[in-house]
């Protein structure tokens, strides 16, 4: 009887409409929670949850308690039936309807465990494996340092390398292989412990094998070199990159035209960090340090300073460190070129901002607004101010629950009021500042009211 009810609800939400969403949702969740070991109940329930969540409006997505109840029920079912392809597919698809990691981070460790199982324990080349690794990569891209460490502790690095080994064995370069490297790139970002795990699990061997087997795959090469850039930023690990074979590869990649300048740029970044340790740390004779650095200077001469980049720096600290390496001007040149390129876009910025949609959803994660708020105060360059205030207006508009409190806690409200009161900023900047203040005001007023609102029914 219960199975029949769930099937009817599934068809109702998939093909028709329901006026009592809250009551239906409670029935599905109760059925799943009381019948955890019943495979058919979990499959029917999770399929219905997908359509409920997908079709729900603000009455669901604004209520944290309801979202957490749905996610907890889904993870319960996925953990109990982790080897069932249909249940795992339903669960992953439903999780994709939420904001990752914001909505799911409360049960972070269990989510990572089940996603890693979907990557490692499920049938090869299955839909579940693909969607699982995309969710993992999204998670790795946006969580903070301790959560990245936890990803490494739970086995993310060795699971990704297992995937890579499988693709190498079968001679397949697909999206799973590329995303596996991308996930490791994100997991190692500013996380030395995970960089060390990559080396300990023979990651460099897989790098060389992928480079040899798939030399013309631009996305793959970019992801691999991005990851090695993270490793090279860790002083204690650079000695493991100092071998004739690795240095020769990095040196050759300086001449790469793959993916624009990205591969060449990342190779130069790796070499710059290695060379920054001084001549005494360069303990190989071939390739010699002078030759590699000369080759790097020649590569930088070829780069277009106006190159648009598919790159995201959370911090300029590693680059700014190289700016101070006075005894190796080649390192300084790469670092200063990087800063010049990344800041060269300002003359074109006003026209670009005019085209941007303030309601755009963003695949981005800010832990702090300090760099943006710094630009808010650059009164002699309104292009900088406008970009910064637009960013705040956009993020507080589409993700108020995540970013309004950050603006307030870091002194952004007072700073924006100063912009509004100041005579120098153009009206377009002041109008955006007003939008940010209004977004924050509305959020904090709404947050102070009763948030435990029931769904319909």
Automatic annotation (TrEMBL):
Record's protein name: Protein zer-1 homolog
Keyword ATP-binding attached: no
Gene Ontology cellular-component terms listed: Cul2-RING ubiquitin ligase complex
Organism: Popillia japonica (Japanese beetle)
Keyword Protease: no
Keywords assigned by UniProt, alphabetized: Leucine-rich repeat, Repeat, Ubl conjugation pathway
Transmembrane residue ranges: none
Source organism superkingdom: Eukaryota
Stored Pfam families: ZER1-like_2nd (PF22964)
PANTHER family linked to this entry: PROTEIN ZER-1 HOMOLOG, PTHR12904
Gene3D superfamilies linked: Leucine-rich Repeat Variant (1.25.10.10)
Domain Protein zer-1 homolog-like C-terminal: 31-347
Family, similarity comment: Belongs to the zyg-11 family.
